[in-house]
Specification:
alpha+beta; Glutaredoxin; Glutathione S-transferase Yfyf (Class Pi), Chain A, domain 2; globular; GST_UstS-like_C; Thioredoxin-like_sf
Length: 229
Amino acid sequence: MNRVLYSLCGSNPARPFSPHCWKVVMALEHKGLAFEEMPRAFTAIPEIEGGATATVPLLNDNGRLVKDSFDIALYLDETYPDRPTLFGGEGGKAMARFVESYSLTVLHSAITRIAVKNIHDIIDHDDQVYFRKSREARLGMPLEEVAAARDEEISAFPAKLQPLRQMLKVQPFIGGDGPLFADYIVFGALQWLRITSGSTHLEADDPVSLWFERCLDLHQGRGRSVTAA
C-alpha cells in the first residue's frame, strides 16, 4: 500500500509548516495509517500529481486523490471506520466545522500578521516573489509594514485564545478526554506559528500552552519532529 501526503515547506524540506497540512499529519497519525510525507515549495505545487491541485495538503491514498484538510479528515473517517474516529459522530463534525471557522477567521489572520515576514525569509527566491505578491495583495500593504506591527499583534494574540482557555478548565482536549480533529485544527495553527516564528507567544503556564504541549506529545511526539524556528 502506498499513501502519500503532499505538504508545504520552505527552503528546508525537513521543516514543513502549513497549518492545514499539520492537521492531516495528525489525523493520519490518529488513525494509525502509515504514510510518506512529501513536502513541496509553493511554486512546485502545480507540478504535484500532474497538476492535480493548486494547494496542499493533497493525499494520494493508493491512487485516490483527496484535497482540502477537512475533506481529507472526513474521507479518512469514512474509509477507515474501524480505526479511531476523528469526529465521534455527526455532532463532532459540526463542532469541528465551528472550530475550523474560528481558527481561520480569528487565529489564522493574527498568525499571518505575526509570522508573514518570517515565512517569506525561510522560502527560496522564486517562492519569495510569489509569496510577496500574493500576500501583499491579500493584506493590502508591504510585508515590511505588516512586520512593523508584529509586537502589537503578539501582545493581542493570547486574548484570541480565551474561548479555548476557558474550555480547558473542564477538559483536557477540545474533543473531551482525548483529541479529535477539532484539536488538530487549532494545533495546526499554533504549530504553524511555532515553526515559522519560534514560539506560540503564550506563557508557559497558560492552559492553552499546556494543551499544546499535550498535543505535541501525541502519536509518539510527531509534532515535536519539527523544532521551533
